[in-house]
Amino acid sequence: MLDLKVELELYLYEVVVREIPGPGLLVKLLSTSLLLITLSLSWVSKATAHPHVWVDAAVLIHKNDYGQIVAIEPVWIFDDLYTATLLPDLDKDENGDVEKNELLTFAKEAVQNLAEWDFFLDARNQTGEGLNFKDNITTESLLINDRLLLRFKLMLEQPIAVAHTIELRMYDPSYFVAIELVKEGVVSFLPKDDALKSSNTCQYEMLDPLDNENNQTPLAELSFSDEEVAENPELGSIFAQSLRVSCQ
Fold first, then answer.
1. Secondary structure of residue 212 in the 3-state scheme
2. Cα 137 to Cα 7, 109, 211, distances in angstroms
3. How many helices (H) and strands (E) are present in the chain, helices listed first?
4. CA within 13 Å, CB half, 210
5. Nearest to 140 by CA among 27, 38, 54
6. Which run of H or of E encompasses 11?
């Protein structure tokens, strides 16, 4: 089986290098929702330590013809255990296969439910102000080597001016879901610089959290009790890596 890095590189090759767009689904956010209603509650009941779900993440940065950042698209790959637990629930027609329309339904519901928690995305401009997104969101879900992938494109209300920096962190405050950035190629830009009218180039920097920079224990091996989570409602932020992105 391919490791995550290879899986994600193959996927991003299809999306970024060849610039083949995903099928997409236009989703209107709902104002009342529960966090990831599609998560398997039976799996939660079997575990008492946080996290319960592990996600390996990357992000696609979308630009307009003039090199301004206009959208942020998180790409999540769920762990194989969670995927195996969830897939039977997604197979609504019980034919033994999770089909394209069933994956799109999952993507739609998951993103609707994530909206109440700001999509587990802390996105800020260079002055520290939060970025605002439009209501309509393009989503997609697919399977890569028996792992569930979710991507959702968040369009900015206002483009980010060239030479301005944005900072992104992806995390679940309750640490129910542990989100860890892949080590290489975590940020990709669409379209590629040579396809733009402008001659700008983009770059990014990945920063480990200050509170965890000396911790040698892999994120996937950390766990916390329900009591510890209750005492630290922003527990997930402690382990959230940062991405600083800019286009010059």
1. helix
2. 24, 12, 33
3. 6, 13
4. 0
5. 27
6. helix 4-12
- pLDDT tens digits, 105-146: 999 999 999 999 999 999 999 999 999 999 999 999 998 888
C-alpha–C-alpha distance, residues 177 and 110, integer Å: 13
Angle in degrees, CA 63, 127, 28, rounded to 5: 50
Q: Are 214 and 38 in contact (CB under 8 A)?
A: no
Whose CA is closest to 198, among 33, 92, 9, 69? Answer: 69
**Tens digit of pLDDT for each residue in 164-215?**
999 999 999 888 888 999 888 899 998 876 555 556 789 999 998 865 555 5
Q: What type of residue is 76?
A: W
CA distances for 33 relative to 23, 25, 97, 115, angstroms: 25, 19, 28, 8
- Alpha carbon distance 75, 55 (integer Å): 10
